[in-house]
Amino acid sequence: MVSLIFLYISTVLTIFAILNPIGAVPTLMVLTENYTKKEKSRVIFKSIMVATGMVLGFMLLGVYIFSVLGISISDFKVAGGALLFIVAFDMLQGKTSRTKLTQQETDESLEKEAIGVVPIGTPLLAGPGTITTAIIYFNTNGYGPIEKFVVFIAIITVLIFSYIILRLSTPLFERLGKTGSLIISRIMGLLLASIGVEFMVTGLIAIVAGI
Fold first, then answer.
1. Both ends of the chain: CA-CA distance in Å?
2. Is 154 within 8 Å of 15 (Cβ atoms)?
3. Which positions ≥6 away from 63 have C-beta within 8 Å?
4. What is the CATH number of the domain that holds 132?
5. Bond into 171 cis (ω within 30)
6. How crowded is residue 9: how many other Cβ atoms within 10 Å of its Cβ?
7. Total domains in the fold of the chain
8. Cβ 24 vs Cβ 178: under 8 Å
């Protein structure tokens, strides 16, 4: 029971850090500056639905993709750890990771509700780092149905928290401001960097042990 609680908490913290809804607040505020309250609510709901579909879809199908491509979870851990470290490095510098959002994607967000899909839903929330981390946690060797269910519930929890945070984006931005959001992003970046290293180390150990 204790191990399941630890798994739940660690998964929630890790996915929350990489999904980083607080870091998405400034982008949301800028892109929805002239929106009505109803229009903004629809954008937020759509962004969370898109992020949920992307993360859960890849998480559940990841093992089959690995099988087709001949990739082991250990190989993916090393690659995923490197990706997380890159994302964390950008966050530590107070930047939106290049793996999550490009200027072209921001410029192409012209339709009011379209920004809920791109760039907020994906890749800002459900970016490569978020998807990679979900796949790794869900497909960790030795995890049975109970552990997988705990990971699933943890990810749903993060998505619900993210929805609440985005709905409260206006008062949050007024209190935190861009500087406060960057400080929180940097703290999360430090956490992600250590998780990325852990993924790479455990993946490499498993690969070496299997040789």
1. 34
2. yes
3. 139
4. 1.20.1250
5. no
6. 11
7. 1
8. no
**Separation CA 138–CA 150 (nearest Å):** 9
Model confidence pLDDT, tens digit, residues 146-176: 999 999 999 999 999 999 999 999 998 888 8
Query: Distance between CA atoms of 165 and 160, rounded to whole angstroms?
Result: 9
Instruction: Say what the pTM is.
Output: 0.85
| CB 78, CB 196: distance < 8 Å | no
Q: Is the dihedral of CA 22, 28, 30, 35 positive or negative?
A: negative
pLDDT of residue 16: 96
Closest alpha carbon to 128 in 165, 82, 92, 161? 82
156's CB contacts (< 8 A; 6+ apart) are 52
Under 8 Å between Cβ of 91 and 124:
no
Single-letter residue type at 130: T
Query: What is the residue range of 95's domain?
Result: 2-210
